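Quick illustration for those who missed Monday's session on complexes.
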Amino acid sequence: MTRNEAVKEIKALRMQYMINVQAEDVDSAFRTSNALGIAITALSGPTREQVKELKGKWEKVDQLEYGELSFEILKCSKCEYEVSADAEDDRWKFCPHCGAKMED
Ligand SMILES: [Zn+2]
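Prediction with zinc ion bound:
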C-alpha cells in the first residue's frame, strides 16, 4: 500500500466514523477526527527521500571587502541563487529561493 492509498483509506474511515457518531460522543469524536487529520497531514508530506533531495549547501562564489567589513557571496548548490553573508551570519539555514535545507 502506498502513502496515497493509506491517506485515501484514512479519509474514508474518518468520513464513515463521523457519519456514525452519536450525539453524546461528539467531543471524543472531534478528538479522534483531529488525530486522523494529523495522520493524514503527516502521510501527505514529502517522503524522507524527497526531503533528502531538498538538501543543499552554500558554495562560496566570491569574497567582498568593504573596509573592515567582509562579505561572502554564496550560491545555493540546488538552484544557484546567490546571497551575501558575513562570517557571523546564520540566517541562511534554508535557501530563500528553492527552500533547500542547507548543510553546515
Ligand atoms: Zn536554492
